[in-house]
TrEMBL record:
Record InterPro entries: LysR-type_TF_proteobact-type, LysR_HTH_N, LysR_subst-bd, WH-like_DNA-bd_sf, WH_DNA-bd_sf
Keyword terms of this UniProt record: DNA-binding, Transcription, Transcription regulation
GO MF term list: DNA binding; DNA-binding transcription factor activity
Record protein name field: LysR family transcriptional regulator
Membrane-crossing residue ranges in chain numbering: none
Family designation: Belongs to the LysR transcriptional regulatory family.
Residues covered by the HTH lysR-type domain: 1-59
Domain of life: Bacteria
Organism encoding this protein: Limoniibacter endophyticus
Length: 300
């Protein structure tokens, strides 16, 4: 096998974090993958991967090497597709990372339509609330919910995030509506561990409050369900509770206050001179799906 072939196999192992998965993806025997990695390490004189019986980890040198060759390999793939007349067709494997709840609610249900439109494309969707390294972890696209930041990555805004204070009808029937921000101190507030302070914008401008949660949990989804069940007041994104607000399971409290308006759902991907068709197609699909006004906000 050529040195270029060894590089391709190494990149696939890093992206999938598994020799067996890489072999399956490439349609070759696991022994071929193992020999290829060994040959590449011997030619470089460095250890790229640490192998145990249960897992593979990429060494620091391996990560650096992968970052340097990943874009070159993608450029080579694009050139091959261009010459073969397939550059305008989304194909291959598209690896996507997305936040757990958002991905489950607003990406997964729409993958069928997207993949039917691009029959030569396979999609790998990984859900995690950790911020992945798009390049080092081998992702084509990461969907993020955060403030836009300067980065070596390209970011495409998909939808603005609205976060509102809300509670169930049962809760406000029992405890009443807070009339002022200070009234929140006498109400049950809910948020997950590590949620940090609530950054709000209201009639008097930006303000920050630090609620003491009546519920201890590390799960934002638990907070969501606890809010719907009547346990307290929470600051929730409309993409998360838009339907419940629409049908009346939840009601807004202190409606003149919302969370920071500089939070966006964005798609980020590695900066390249020519963005592969599979990335362009998926990003444009999400843009059409969520904009110009997100469906969860149209319900309200």
């Amino acid at each position: 096998m050529s040195e270029l072939g060894d590089l391709h196999i190494f990149a696939k192992v890093v992206a999938l974090r598994s020799m067996s998965e890489a072999a399956r993806s490439l349609g070759i025997a696991p022994a071929v993958v193992s020999k290829s990695i060994k040959r590449l390490e011997e030619s470089l004189g460095v250890r790229l991967l640490q192998r145990t019986t249960r897992r593979i980890t990429v060494t620091e040198l391996g990560q650096d090497y992968y970052k340097r060759i990943a874009n070159a390999l993608n450029d080579l793939e694009e050139a091959t597709l261009l010459v073969s007349g397939q550059a305008d067709e989304a194909s291959g494997l598209l690896r996507v990372s997305a936040p757990t709840s958002f991905g489950r609610m607003h990406i997964a249900p729409h993958l069928g339509t997207f993949m039917q439109s691009h029959p030569r494309l396979n999609v790998e969707l990984n859900l995690s609330d950790d911020i992945v390294d798009v390049i080092a972890d081998g992702y084509d696209i990461a969907v993020r919910i955060t403030e836009p930041r300067d980065s070596s990555l390209i970011g495409r805004k998909l939808a603005r995030v609205r976060r509102v204070l809300c509670a169930s009808r049962e809760y406000v029937a029992k405890y009443g509506y807070p009339q002022t921000i200070d009234d929140l101190k006498t109400h049950r507030c809910l948020q997950a561990h590590g949620g940090g302070p609530w950054h709000l914008e209201g009639p008097e401008g930006p303000l920050t409050i630090r609620p003491e949660s009546a519920l201890l949990t590390n799960s934002s989804e638990v907070v969501r369900e606890a809010t719907i069940s009547g346990l307290g007041i929470a600051l929730r994104s409309t993409w998360d509770v838009g339907e419940e607000l629409h049908i009346g399971k939840l009601v807004r409290v202190l409606p003149s206050y919302e969370g920071s308006r500089n939070i966006w759902i964005s798609a980020v991907f590695a900066s390249r001179q020519h963005v592969p068709m599979k990335i362009r197609a998926f990003v444009e699909y999400l843009v059409a799906l969520y904009g110009p006004r997100a469906p969860w906000d149209r319900m309200m």
